[in-house]
Amino acid sequence: MDTNIKTCARFVRRVFERSPEPIRRVILLVLILLLVGGCSGLSRNPVPIERMEDAVVAGMPGVRGYWDDTVVDPLFQQDAIQSVYDEPDDLFPRRDDGSPVYSGLAVSGGGADGAFGAGILVGWTDSGARPKFKLVTGISTGALIAPYAFVGAAYDAKLKAAYTTVATRDIVKIPSLPTLGSEALTDSSPLAQRIAKDVNEEMLAEIAAAHGRGRRLYIGTTDMDAQRFVVWNMGAIAASGHPGALALFRKVMLASASIPGVFPPVYIDVEVDGQPYDEMHVDGGVITQVFFYESMLDIKKAAAVAGVAPTSASAGSVYVIRNGKVYPERQHTPRKLLAITGRAVSTMIKSASINDLGRIYMLSKRDNMDFNYIGVPGDFQFEGEEAFDPKLMNALFELGFQTARKGDFWHKAPIEAAKNN
Questions:
Q1: Is 75 helix (H, G, I), strand (E, B) or coil?
Q2: What is the reported pTM?
Q3: 3-state class (DSSP) for residue 322
Q4: In this structure, how many other beta carbons lie within 10 angstroms of the beta carbon of residue 252?
Q5: Distance from C-alpha of 4 to C-alpha of 188, rounded to nearest angstrom
Q6: Distance (Å, rounded) from C-alpha 245 to C-alpha 268?
Q7: Could you report the average pLDDT of every consecutive run of 10 residues in the chain (421 residues)?
Protein backbone atom coordinates (compact mmCIF):
# COMPACT_ATOMS: atom_id res chain seq x y z
CA MET A 1 0.00 0.00 0.00
CA ASP A 2 1.16 3.51 -0.84
CA THR A 3 0.42 4.74 2.67
CA ASN A 4 2.31 1.81 4.17
CA ILE A 5 5.43 2.72 2.17
CA LYS A 6 5.17 6.27 3.48
CA THR A 7 4.76 4.88 6.99
CA CYS A 8 7.91 2.79 6.61
CA ALA A 9 9.90 5.76 5.31
CA ARG A 10 8.73 7.93 8.20
CA PHE A 11 9.77 5.33 10.76
CA VAL A 12 13.23 5.01 9.24
CA ARG A 13 13.65 8.76 8.91
CA ARG A 14 12.56 9.48 12.48
CA VAL A 15 14.96 6.91 13.96
CA PHE A 16 17.76 8.26 11.78
CA GLU A 17 17.18 11.98 12.36
CA ARG A 18 16.82 11.76 16.14
CA SER A 19 20.22 10.05 16.48
CA PRO A 20 23.67 11.73 16.82
CA GLU A 21 26.17 11.39 13.97
CA PRO A 22 28.07 8.35 15.36
CA ILE A 23 24.79 6.47 15.82
CA ARG A 24 23.69 7.43 12.32
CA ARG A 25 26.74 5.71 10.94
CA VAL A 26 25.84 2.58 12.88
CA ILE A 27 22.26 2.73 11.57
CA LEU A 28 23.51 3.00 8.01
CA LEU A 29 25.81 0.04 8.57
CA VAL A 30 22.95 -2.00 10.01
CA LEU A 31 20.69 -1.16 7.06
CA ILE A 32 23.42 -2.12 4.61
CA LEU A 33 23.97 -5.41 6.40
CA LEU A 34 20.26 -6.10 6.37
CA LEU A 35 20.01 -5.30 2.67
CA VAL A 36 22.82 -7.67 1.70
CA GLY A 37 21.70 -10.39 4.08
CA GLY A 38 24.81 -10.15 6.20
CA CYS A 39 23.19 -11.25 9.45
CA SER A 40 21.74 -14.50 10.65
CA GLY A 41 18.00 -14.75 11.20
CA LEU A 42 16.04 -15.88 14.22
CA SER A 43 15.20 -19.55 14.53
CA ARG A 44 11.82 -20.95 13.51
CA ASN A 45 10.08 -24.21 12.60
CA PRO A 46 8.71 -23.76 9.05
CA VAL A 47 6.58 -26.25 7.19
CA PRO A 48 8.68 -28.43 4.86
CA ILE A 49 8.42 -26.96 1.38
CA GLU A 50 7.08 -30.17 -0.14
CA ARG A 51 4.30 -30.34 2.50
CA MET A 52 3.06 -26.74 2.45
CA GLU A 53 -0.16 -27.70 0.67
CA ASP A 54 -0.95 -30.13 3.51
CA ALA A 55 -0.58 -27.71 6.43
CA VAL A 56 -3.74 -27.09 8.47
CA VAL A 57 -4.58 -25.12 11.58
CA ALA A 58 -4.73 -27.64 14.38
CA GLY A 59 -8.30 -28.30 15.49
CA MET A 60 -9.76 -25.89 12.93
CA PRO A 61 -9.65 -27.49 9.47
CA GLY A 62 -11.44 -25.63 6.72
CA VAL A 63 -11.00 -22.10 8.05
CA ARG A 64 -8.80 -20.86 5.21
CA GLY A 65 -7.94 -21.29 1.58
CA TYR A 66 -5.53 -20.01 -1.05
CA TRP A 67 -6.63 -17.47 -3.63
CA ASP A 68 -5.38 -18.58 -7.06
CA ASP A 69 -6.34 -16.60 -10.12
CA THR A 70 -8.47 -19.16 -11.93
CA VAL A 71 -9.20 -21.92 -9.43
CA VAL A 72 -12.47 -22.33 -7.54
CA ASP A 73 -11.64 -23.52 -4.03
CA PRO A 74 -13.92 -26.55 -3.32
CA LEU A 75 -13.90 -25.80 0.40
CA PHE A 76 -15.00 -22.18 -0.03
CA GLN A 77 -17.53 -23.12 -2.72
CA GLN A 78 -19.19 -25.66 -0.44
CA ASP A 79 -19.16 -23.11 2.37
CA ALA A 80 -20.83 -20.59 0.06
CA ILE A 81 -23.58 -23.10 -0.71
CA GLN A 82 -24.02 -23.78 3.00
CA SER A 83 -24.22 -20.05 3.67
CA VAL A 84 -27.22 -19.77 1.34
CA TYR A 85 -28.96 -22.69 3.06
CA ASP A 86 -28.34 -21.03 6.44
CA GLU A 87 -29.95 -17.68 5.54
CA PRO A 88 -33.22 -16.92 7.32
CA ASP A 89 -35.90 -15.78 4.89
CA ASP A 90 -35.95 -12.28 6.36
CA LEU A 91 -32.17 -11.70 6.46
CA PHE A 92 -31.86 -9.95 3.08
CA PRO A 93 -34.33 -8.13 0.84
CA ARG A 94 -36.16 -10.41 -1.57
CA ARG A 95 -37.09 -10.04 -5.22
CA ASP A 96 -40.51 -10.89 -6.59
CA ASP A 97 -39.19 -14.36 -7.49
CA GLY A 98 -38.18 -14.96 -3.86
CA SER A 99 -34.43 -14.80 -4.44
CA PRO A 100 -32.25 -12.76 -2.01
CA VAL A 101 -30.66 -9.43 -2.93
CA TYR A 102 -27.04 -9.52 -1.78
CA SER A 103 -24.66 -6.68 -0.89
CA GLY A 104 -20.91 -7.16 -0.44
CA LEU A 105 -18.20 -4.89 0.94
CA ALA A 106 -14.46 -4.93 0.17
CA VAL A 107 -12.19 -2.72 2.33
CA SER A 108 -8.65 -2.00 1.16
CA GLY A 109 -5.45 -1.38 3.03
CA GLY A 110 -4.02 2.08 3.59
CA GLY A 111 -2.50 2.44 7.06
CA ALA A 112 -3.68 5.59 8.82
CA ASP A 113 -5.92 6.34 5.82
CA GLY A 114 -8.19 3.63 7.20
CA ALA A 115 -9.78 6.50 9.13
CA PHE A 116 -11.41 7.50 5.83
CA GLY A 117 -13.06 4.10 5.45
CA ALA A 118 -14.18 4.15 9.07
CA GLY A 119 -15.78 7.55 8.45
CA ILE A 120 -17.51 6.25 5.32
CA LEU A 121 -19.10 3.38 7.24
CA VAL A 122 -20.27 5.51 10.15
CA GLY A 123 -21.60 8.21 7.80
CA TRP A 124 -23.30 5.54 5.69
CA THR A 125 -25.12 4.37 8.82
CA ASP A 126 -26.12 7.94 9.58
CA SER A 127 -27.60 8.29 6.09
CA GLY A 128 -29.89 5.34 6.75
CA ALA A 129 -28.83 3.60 3.53
CA ARG A 130 -26.17 1.17 4.78
CA PRO A 131 -27.20 -2.41 3.92
CA LYS A 132 -26.59 -5.67 5.73
CA PHE A 133 -23.70 -7.37 3.95
CA LYS A 134 -23.65 -10.95 2.75
CA LEU A 135 -19.85 -10.80 2.46
CA VAL A 136 -17.24 -8.44 3.94
CA THR A 137 -13.55 -8.66 3.03
CA GLY A 138 -10.54 -6.76 4.35
CA ILE A 139 -6.79 -6.43 3.96
CA SER A 140 -4.29 -4.63 6.21
CA THR A 141 -6.05 -1.64 7.78
CA GLY A 142 -9.14 -2.98 6.00
CA ALA A 143 -8.72 -6.17 8.04
CA LEU A 144 -8.99 -4.06 11.18
CA ILE A 145 -12.14 -2.37 9.87
CA ALA A 146 -13.86 -5.43 8.38
CA PRO A 147 -15.01 -7.12 11.63
CA TYR A 148 -16.70 -3.88 12.75
CA ALA A 149 -18.37 -3.48 9.35
CA PHE A 150 -19.49 -7.11 9.51
CA VAL A 151 -21.15 -7.02 12.93
CA GLY A 152 -22.95 -3.82 11.98
CA ALA A 153 -23.82 -0.31 13.05
CA ALA A 154 -23.96 -1.19 16.76
CA TYR A 155 -20.15 -1.15 16.67
CA ASP A 156 -19.82 2.22 14.89
CA ALA A 157 -18.74 4.05 18.06
CA LYS A 158 -15.94 1.56 18.65
CA LEU A 159 -14.89 1.77 15.01
CA LYS A 160 -14.73 5.55 15.21
CA ALA A 161 -12.68 5.40 18.42
CA ALA A 162 -10.26 2.92 16.84
CA TYR A 163 -9.32 5.49 14.19
CA THR A 164 -9.75 8.87 15.90
CA THR A 165 -8.26 8.34 19.36
CA VAL A 166 -4.89 6.82 18.46
CA ALA A 167 -1.38 8.01 17.64
CA THR A 168 1.77 6.23 16.49
CA ARG A 169 2.63 5.21 20.06
CA ASP A 170 -0.69 3.33 20.24
CA ILE A 171 0.24 1.25 17.18
CA VAL A 172 3.97 0.55 17.50
CA LYS A 173 7.00 0.95 19.70
CA ILE A 174 9.92 2.53 17.84
CA PRO A 175 13.34 1.41 19.12
CA SER A 176 16.13 3.96 19.36
CA LEU A 177 18.35 1.74 17.18
CA PRO A 178 17.53 -1.18 14.87
CA THR A 179 18.80 -4.49 16.21
CA LEU A 180 21.03 -6.53 13.92
CA GLY A 181 19.14 -9.69 13.07
CA SER A 182 15.73 -8.31 14.04
CA GLU A 183 12.60 -8.94 11.97
CA ALA A 184 11.35 -5.37 11.75
CA LEU A 185 12.04 -1.74 12.51
CA THR A 186 9.31 -1.60 15.16
CA ASP A 187 7.48 -3.62 17.78
CA SER A 188 3.75 -4.00 17.01
CA SER A 189 2.73 -5.12 20.50
CA PRO A 190 0.68 -1.92 21.09
CA LEU A 191 -1.47 -2.77 18.04
CA ALA A 192 -1.81 -6.36 19.21
CA GLN A 193 -3.01 -5.08 22.59
CA ARG A 194 -5.58 -2.80 20.96
CA ILE A 195 -6.92 -5.67 18.86
CA ALA A 196 -7.14 -7.86 21.96
CA LYS A 197 -9.05 -5.15 23.82
CA ASP A 198 -11.65 -4.56 21.11
CA VAL A 199 -11.99 -8.06 19.65
CA ASN A 200 -13.24 -9.90 22.71
CA GLU A 201 -15.39 -12.94 23.42
CA GLU A 202 -18.58 -10.91 22.98
CA MET A 203 -17.60 -9.71 19.52
CA LEU A 204 -16.43 -13.19 18.53
CA ALA A 205 -19.82 -14.59 19.56
CA GLU A 206 -21.64 -12.01 17.43
CA ILE A 207 -19.47 -12.86 14.43
CA ALA A 208 -20.11 -16.57 14.99
CA ALA A 209 -23.86 -15.93 15.17
CA ALA A 210 -23.80 -13.92 11.92
CA HIS A 211 -21.80 -16.71 10.27
CA GLY A 212 -24.45 -19.20 11.39
CA ARG A 213 -27.08 -17.06 9.67
CA GLY A 214 -25.33 -17.28 6.31
CA ARG A 215 -23.10 -14.20 6.28
CA ARG A 216 -19.35 -14.37 5.62
CA LEU A 217 -16.26 -12.43 6.73
CA TYR A 218 -12.96 -12.94 4.91
CA ILE A 219 -9.55 -11.46 5.76
CA GLY A 220 -6.45 -11.82 3.58
CA THR A 221 -2.83 -12.36 4.61
CA THR A 222 0.36 -13.18 2.71
CA ASP A 223 2.07 -16.50 3.46
CA MET A 224 5.70 -15.47 3.00
CA ASP A 225 7.02 -19.02 2.73
CA ALA A 226 4.54 -20.12 0.07
CA GLN A 227 4.35 -16.68 -1.61
CA ARG A 228 0.59 -17.04 -1.72
CA PHE A 229 -2.43 -15.04 -0.69
CA VAL A 230 -4.36 -16.74 2.10
CA VAL A 231 -8.06 -16.03 2.64
CA TRP A 232 -9.28 -16.68 6.17
CA ASN A 233 -12.93 -17.50 6.83
CA MET A 234 -13.15 -15.49 10.04
CA GLY A 235 -16.72 -16.50 10.82
CA ALA A 236 -15.72 -20.16 10.60
CA ILE A 237 -12.92 -19.47 13.08
CA ALA A 238 -15.35 -17.70 15.42
CA ALA A 239 -17.92 -20.49 15.13
CA SER A 240 -15.42 -23.34 15.50
CA GLY A 241 -15.81 -23.61 19.27
CA HIS A 242 -12.07 -24.23 19.50
CA PRO A 243 -10.42 -22.84 22.67
CA GLY A 244 -7.83 -21.12 20.49
CA ALA A 245 -10.36 -19.46 18.17
CA LEU A 246 -10.14 -15.98 19.69
CA ALA A 247 -6.33 -16.02 19.70
CA LEU A 248 -6.22 -17.12 16.05
CA PHE A 249 -8.82 -14.52 15.05
CA ARG A 250 -6.68 -11.77 16.60
CA LYS A 251 -3.49 -13.16 15.05
CA VAL A 252 -4.97 -13.10 11.55
CA MET A 253 -6.06 -9.48 11.97
CA LEU A 254 -2.60 -8.50 13.21
CA ALA A 255 -0.87 -10.45 10.44
CA SER A 256 -2.96 -8.79 7.75
CA ALA A 257 -1.94 -5.36 9.09
CA SER A 258 1.77 -6.21 9.53
CA ILE A 259 3.69 -4.20 6.94
CA PRO A 260 6.82 -6.25 6.15
CA GLY A 261 9.99 -4.70 7.48
CA VAL A 262 8.06 -2.16 9.55
CA PHE A 263 6.02 -4.56 11.71
CA PRO A 264 7.23 -8.03 12.71
CA PRO A 265 5.61 -10.94 10.87
CA VAL A 266 3.02 -13.03 12.68
CA TYR A 267 3.56 -16.77 13.09
CA ILE A 268 0.56 -19.06 12.71
CA ASP A 269 0.80 -22.49 14.33
CA VAL A 270 -0.09 -25.28 11.90
CA GLU A 271 0.45 -29.00 11.65
CA VAL A 272 1.15 -31.64 9.02
CA ASP A 273 0.28 -35.24 9.92
CA GLY A 274 0.14 -34.19 13.56
CA GLN A 275 3.60 -32.59 13.51
CA PRO A 276 3.69 -28.92 14.62
CA TYR A 277 5.15 -26.18 12.41
CA ASP A 278 4.83 -22.44 11.93
CA GLU A 279 3.91 -20.24 8.97
CA MET A 280 5.12 -16.65 8.54
CA HIS A 281 2.26 -14.30 7.65
CA VAL A 282 2.36 -10.59 6.80
CA ASP A 283 0.27 -7.85 5.23
CA GLY A 284 -2.09 -9.14 2.54
CA GLY A 285 -1.27 -5.95 0.63
CA VAL A 286 2.00 -7.56 -0.44
CA ILE A 287 -0.05 -9.43 -3.06
CA THR A 288 -3.22 -7.37 -3.57
CA GLN A 289 -4.57 -4.08 -2.26
CA VAL A 290 -8.20 -5.15 -2.05
CA PHE A 291 -10.10 -8.35 -2.88
CA PHE A 292 -13.60 -9.73 -3.09
CA TYR A 293 -14.61 -13.37 -3.66
CA GLU A 294 -12.74 -13.38 -6.98
CA SER A 295 -12.41 -16.85 -8.54
CA MET A 296 -12.32 -18.64 -5.17
CA LEU A 297 -16.03 -19.31 -5.35
CA ASP A 298 -19.00 -18.90 -7.65
CA ILE A 299 -21.70 -17.20 -5.60
CA LYS A 300 -24.33 -17.42 -8.37
CA LYS A 301 -23.78 -21.16 -8.74
CA ALA A 302 -23.93 -21.53 -4.96
CA ALA A 303 -27.30 -19.76 -4.93
CA ALA A 304 -28.50 -21.95 -7.78
CA VAL A 305 -27.50 -25.14 -5.96
CA ALA A 306 -29.39 -23.89 -2.91
CA GLY A 307 -32.43 -23.20 -5.05
CA VAL A 308 -32.53 -19.40 -4.82
CA ALA A 309 -30.79 -18.29 -8.03
CA PRO A 310 -32.15 -14.90 -9.15
CA THR A 311 -34.07 -14.70 -12.42
CA SER A 312 -33.66 -10.94 -12.68
CA ALA A 313 -30.70 -9.20 -14.32
CA SER A 314 -28.90 -8.02 -11.18
CA ALA A 315 -27.27 -10.40 -8.71
CA GLY A 316 -26.71 -7.67 -6.10
CA SER A 317 -24.20 -4.93 -5.30
CA VAL A 318 -20.51 -4.73 -4.46
CA TYR A 319 -19.07 -1.75 -2.58
CA VAL A 320 -15.32 -1.06 -2.57
CA ILE A 321 -13.74 1.33 -0.06
CA ARG A 322 -10.22 2.37 -1.02
CA ASN A 323 -8.40 3.83 1.98
CA GLY A 324 -6.19 6.19 0.04
CA LYS A 325 -5.75 7.90 -3.28
CA VAL A 326 -5.48 5.34 -6.05
CA TYR A 327 -4.53 7.52 -8.97
CA PRO A 328 -1.22 9.37 -9.54
CA GLU A 329 -0.13 12.21 -7.25
CA ARG A 330 2.45 14.42 -8.91
CA GLN A 331 5.42 15.57 -6.86
CA HIS A 332 9.13 16.19 -7.19
CA THR A 333 11.31 13.33 -5.94
CA PRO A 334 14.46 14.35 -4.00
CA ARG A 335 17.78 12.83 -5.02
CA LYS A 336 17.94 10.62 -1.93
CA LEU A 337 18.02 6.84 -1.57
CA LEU A 338 14.95 6.48 0.63
CA ALA A 339 12.97 9.06 -1.36
CA ILE A 340 13.70 7.43 -4.72
CA THR A 341 13.13 3.89 -3.44
CA GLY A 342 9.93 4.83 -1.63
CA ARG A 343 8.59 6.71 -4.64
CA ALA A 344 9.31 3.78 -6.95
CA VAL A 345 7.59 1.26 -4.68
CA SER A 346 4.59 3.54 -4.06
CA THR A 347 4.24 3.96 -7.84
CA MET A 348 4.16 0.19 -8.31
CA ILE A 349 1.55 -0.09 -5.58
CA LYS A 350 -0.62 2.61 -7.13
CA SER A 351 -0.49 0.71 -10.39
CA ALA A 352 -1.52 -2.46 -8.55
CA SER A 353 -4.39 -0.57 -6.89
CA ILE A 354 -5.74 0.50 -10.26
CA ASN A 355 -5.52 -3.08 -11.50
CA ASP A 356 -7.31 -4.36 -8.36
CA LEU A 357 -10.12 -1.88 -8.86
CA GLY A 358 -10.47 -2.86 -12.51
CA ARG A 359 -10.44 -6.56 -11.61
CA ILE A 360 -13.33 -6.22 -9.16
CA TYR A 361 -15.19 -4.04 -11.65
CA MET A 362 -14.88 -6.78 -14.30
CA LEU A 363 -15.97 -9.37 -11.72
CA SER A 364 -19.09 -7.31 -11.01
CA LYS A 365 -19.88 -7.08 -14.73
CA ARG A 366 -19.39 -10.82 -15.16
CA ASP A 367 -21.73 -11.64 -12.30
CA ASN A 368 -24.30 -8.90 -13.02
CA MET A 369 -23.56 -6.97 -9.84
CA ASP A 370 -23.94 -3.23 -9.34
CA PHE A 371 -20.40 -1.84 -8.88
CA ASN A 372 -19.71 0.97 -6.38
CA TYR A 373 -16.39 2.55 -5.43
CA ILE A 374 -15.15 5.36 -3.19
CA GLY A 375 -11.64 6.55 -2.35
CA VAL A 376 -9.92 9.55 -0.78
CA PRO A 377 -10.49 12.49 -3.16
CA GLY A 378 -7.46 13.72 -5.06
CA ASP A 379 -7.85 17.26 -3.75
CA PHE A 380 -7.60 16.23 -0.08
CA GLN A 381 -4.35 17.63 1.31
CA PHE A 382 -3.11 17.14 4.87
CA GLU A 383 0.49 16.39 5.82
CA GLY A 384 0.69 14.52 9.11
CA GLU A 385 3.56 15.02 11.54
CA GLU A 386 3.87 11.32 12.37
CA ALA A 387 3.01 7.97 10.81
CA PHE A 388 -0.36 7.74 12.60
CA ASP A 389 -1.11 11.41 13.15
CA PRO A 390 -4.29 12.00 15.21
CA LYS A 391 -5.10 15.27 13.41
CA LEU A 392 -4.76 13.64 9.99
CA MET A 393 -6.84 10.62 11.00
CA ASN A 394 -9.60 12.78 12.47
CA ALA A 395 -9.64 14.87 9.29
CA LEU A 396 -9.89 11.74 7.16
CA PHE A 397 -12.65 10.30 9.35
CA GLU A 398 -14.64 13.52 9.12
CA LEU A 399 -14.15 13.61 5.35
CA GLY A 400 -15.45 10.06 5.02
CA PHE A 401 -18.32 10.70 7.42
CA GLN A 402 -19.55 13.84 5.68
CA THR A 403 -19.15 12.25 2.25
CA ALA A 404 -21.25 9.23 3.15
CA ARG A 405 -23.98 10.84 5.24
CA LYS A 406 -25.03 13.01 2.29
CA GLY A 407 -25.77 9.92 0.21
CA ASP A 408 -25.23 9.30 -3.52
CA PHE A 409 -21.44 9.27 -3.15
CA TRP A 410 -20.42 6.11 -5.00
CA HIS A 411 -18.55 6.02 -8.32
CA LYS A 412 -20.05 3.48 -10.70
CA ALA A 413 -16.94 2.67 -12.71
CA PRO A 414 -13.16 3.01 -12.32
CA ILE A 415 -13.03 5.75 -14.96
CA GLU A 416 -15.38 7.87 -12.83
CA ALA A 417 -13.07 7.39 -9.87
CA ALA A 418 -10.10 8.48 -12.02
CA LYS A 419 -11.81 11.74 -12.91
CA ASN A 420 -12.31 12.50 -9.22
CA ASN A 421 -8.86 11.49 -8.03
A1: helix
A2: 0.87
A3: strand
A4: 26
A5: 14
A6: 12
A7: 54 50 49 50 88 93 83 86 90 82 93 96 96 96 97 96 94 71 84 96 98 97 95 97 97 95 93 96 92 81 72 77 86 86 79 87 89 91 86 96 93 67 51
